[in-house]
Amino acid sequence: EMEIKIKINDNDHDSREKNKSDESYKGTKFYLATLPDYESYDNLPRRWTEERLRQYLSGTMLLERIQREKSGLKNDYDLLFHAVQKHETDNLSKLLLPFPSFDLFDQMLSAVASRAFDSLGDDNLEAMVPLLDLFNHKRGTAGTSDISYRRSDDDGSIIVTARCDLNIGSTPGITYGAKGNAQLLERYGFTLANNIEPDGSSNDIVDFEVKSNVIVQLRRGGKSYTYGSLVKVLESYINEDEDNDTSSSNCGSEELGMEDFLNACEQENDDFNDVTCLYNSEIRVQSSDFINSSSNNDNDIDIEIQAIDAFILAIHKARDKYKYKW
User: 183 by DSSP, 3-state: which?
Assistant: First the structure.
């Protein structure tokens, strides 16, 4: 077992006073010099042109998030810039350092967002940790983290421990968490081709808009991952139909009925339990597939099948909005 101790702060009061001298900031300056330059963050979608954003992200909820992030970043910069100007005017004095340009502000924010570690700083705040921020993301079927790290209770140092034998020249990895590709792309500027956990569940989540202001998160995986959100989508379509039809039966009984209905479908067709099967353009749910023709009480099942048909149609429409073609 190999341990490395990284000291990122000094809790001694006298040492903190000495840090006011230029000499004491050398370590910080050396670390800042190791951070990527401005162009290195061009993979972040908020750096993309509007044309490129629409080429790759049209039809996804990520497009709207990135557009809000771009405008929000500029608004934050302008707010800080004007606040500093007002401070200098009111106090008739300028800051020791000039206010950074927007590009430098963007670069430093990108560095913090992609490299800071949760709860490793004082008072459990985020902290930038030299060397530790060099490790790449490793998750799911690609394997587990090669190292572990923790903050020392004694002096605030970060103790990094190898969890396995590391070959000379190899690149150890750590996990950034169970993040979907949308999160990875937005924050770090990369995606994983096979972002799947060992249990077969996907870290990718689709924000599916059932109707205006009603978003349900869909996910591929086992029943425990997919069933709840699938039932919620279908119930939304059922409730929507009942809102438009005042003669409908009591909707309070539909929740259990929909889940039972899906259970029955799963028993008849083992492939039905995967939401992704609904993307197949050849799939069409017909009432004859699920209903015994001799049954005289098929109204509830008809309603549920109509909800599934509506869901399939909505998925096709959502897919058609996605403009990027492989």
Answer: helix
Q: Identify each DSSP E strand in the chain by its residue range.
A: 3-6, 136-137, 147-151, 158-162, 173-174, 205-211, 214-219
Task: Report how far residue 218's alpha carbon sits from residue 228's, in angstroms, rounded to the nearest whole number.
Answer: 9
Stated pTM of the model: 0.71
Is 170:139 a contact under the CB 8 Å cutoff? no
CA 175 to chain centre: 14
Phi, psi dihedral angles at 44 (to 5 degrees): -70, 130
Tokens 């001298």 -> residue: 21
Rounded CA-CA distance 187/162 in Å is 26
Name the residue type at position 323: K
What tens digit of pLDDT does each residue of 12-52 get? Answer: 545 555 545 565 577 788 888 889 999 999 999 999 999 99
Burial 196-207 (b: 16+ CB within 10 A, else e): beeeebbbbbbe
Q: Which residue has the tokens 């001799």?
A: 294
